[in-house]
TrEMBL record:
Annotated InterPro entries: SLC26A/SulP_dom, SLC26A/SulP_fam
Lineage: Bacteria, Bacillati, Actinomycetota, Actinomycetes, Kitasatosporales
Name of protein: SulP family inorganic anion transporter
GO biological process terms on file: transmembrane transport
Domain of life: Bacteria
Keywords: Membrane, Transmembrane, Transmembrane helix
Main location: membrane
Region (Disordered): 504-523
Subcellular location, record wording: Membrane
Residues of the SLC26A/SulP transporter domain: 21-388
Amino acid sequence: MSSFLSSSLAHFRPLREPGVLRQDILASLVVFLVALPLCVGVAVASGVPAELGLVTGIVGGLVVGFLPGSALQVSGPAAGLTVLVFEAVQEFGLGMLGAIVLLTGALQITLGLLRCGRWFRAISVSVVQGMLAGIGLVLILGQLYTMAGAKQPRSGIDKIAGLPGLFADIASDSASLTAAAVGLGTIAVLVLWPKLPAAVRVVPAPLAAVALATAVVAGFGLDVANVSVRGLVDAVQPPGLGDLAELGSVAVLGTVLAFTLIASAESLFSAAAVDRMHDGPRTHYDKELVAQGVGNTVCGVLGALPMTAVIVRSSANVAAGARTPLSRILHGAWLLLFAVLLPTALGIIPLAALAGVLVHAGCKLIPVKEIVPLARAHRGEAFVLAATAIAILVTNMFEGVVLGLILAVVKSAWETSHVHVDVRELPGGRQIVTLTGNATFLRLPRILETLEALPKDRPIELDLTVVRHLDHACRTTLENWALRHNDSGTEAVRMRTLPVAVAPAAGPAAAEEPERAEAQARS
């Protein structure tokens, strides 16, 4: 515990240097302005009160900000979990969300204390990119309905099937057309904002886009739905005993595992990306996993959204010149002050504007620029990415990620099981078959195709002494082939193996082993 606290305090030492405190305060204001519209937008898209997004952002600053792990990355509600949260709320209800997030946090703490943080770095990058791409596709499709003021279907297939009807409604209904125009205008501002002069870009693009959309709607008196405001205290609903009792069901545990996997992987991948952006202390992955778990535990107790480390806020923090965790702590304080002092300000934000922000965020989750080069260089990786994304779109988050992980493991096993079969003939007709590489069951069809094509009326010797790895299935199959291949009037197939790798075969092949051992002893 003392080392945990000492490593946390070490991140604040640069505050003794002149100018660092002022720089961190300014960076915290930048992060606050970036986080505010995203916290609200993610909450609305997740089907929960807007204030719960602010609660998660506050916990990410005031709780996780003090904990060791990564000094400069910022935590809060993330677009990457929006789809999963929406599905969980629709299936189990808002009351269960807090219990699910609470158990997710406890599981993350356990994994961090067991030093499992580093293992999340072993997840295939293609699976992670496919996961984010799938989330992006579902997010885009869902928010297109919200942007037009329509109710979005639950499944990805229904979202796709409903698009023609949605576009027809936009074209024929003035209210839908107005809302869609506000959303498209918001997206246009987000796309064009980085191209404006640096003096203008001091204001973060999401805040500028939402503020301009709000001003246009209010100035022209447009009939567009706004964010529903309940108040911070009313929105916080801790899970009850009945909700905690439901955590034992298989469906809920599957959702908890999905939350844990995705939130942890996204946080630790974000930490690796943030480490490349600055020259400060590197991330301690196990401690960062514990910190995320503590944050999610607190969010669960408050009935709020789950949190992850968010690359958009983290990169804004680094770019603004932050040096210590003080900037992310203060960003949480600014969010708290806003939620307490200006809660009614949320009620004037158009839902279509927030939907536009999330459509833009969903597009950024799809690695369009990386897909074509990846397909050219590594077709298997591109296939895993695409399969994961499509599976998430047509099924759900958990099943899509599990499928991606299985495909990644199978692909890795296939690629590492390279084996070469060399056939050469000695004077007198004897044939020597040598296997090199990794002989596993995955390569048995190729191995047997070569072996079964050999003549059955000649002496054959199968050399396995230089095989790097020979699994049980392959060994057993080769022994059976050796016993049955040659004709009855022909010398039986001989097998040369390493005793520690392959047990002596029964029958004629085994009779040779004592003679070879005696010859080796004499030599």
